[in-house]
Write a structure and sequence with these properties.
This protein is mainly α. The chain has 8 helices and no strands.
């Protein structure tokens, strides 16, 4: 986010510098007001398109684990009643993501992620994330 803000500020500073260069008396006598308005509108249109694309790009879902061919223990999933969405949250927890990062990657609200986390703690009889991840690894649910 800081990189985007810094880039945006530098781009605006460059645009102001460009406008100051255009203000020299040589350009003021030869060019009309419509030219200046056209240049400014084109620059800010391009800037608006760039910012819009930056803000609306799709975020990548949680990548699969690097282990490759890991297959979770289906009988343990059924035995503990872990839903597919809870399993995705568990994978995110195992990869070290925060609740907000899991919510962003799975396109969920943070409250939904917290609910799934609480359900996982109950189902795996754990008090915190590290215990839940250890039990899930012991049961063969995650690599």
């Amino acid at each position: 986010m800081r990189k985007t803000i810094l880039l945006y500020a530098l781009l605006l500073a460059f645009l102001i510098f460009l406008l100051k260069v255009l203000e020299y008396k040589f350009f003021v006598r030869d060019l009309s007001l419509e030219f200046y308005l056209g240049v400014v509108s084109l620059l800010f249109t391009g800037l608006g398109i760039w910012v819009g694309l930056k803000l609306t790009r799709k975020k990548n879902p949680i990548p699969p684990p690097a282990g490759g061919n890991f297959v979770p223990n289906e009988s343990a999933l059924q035995q503990f009643g872990i839903s597919p969405r809870e399993y995705e949250v568990l994978e995110g927890m195992a990869q070290g993501f925060s609740n907000q990062e899991i919510a962003d990657k799975l396109f969920l609200s943070i409250n939904t992620v917290k609910t799934h986390t609480s359900n996982l703690f109950l189902k795996l009889e754990a008090r915190r994330r590290t215990q839940a991840i250890q039990k899930a690894k012991a049961l063969g649910l995650i690599p």
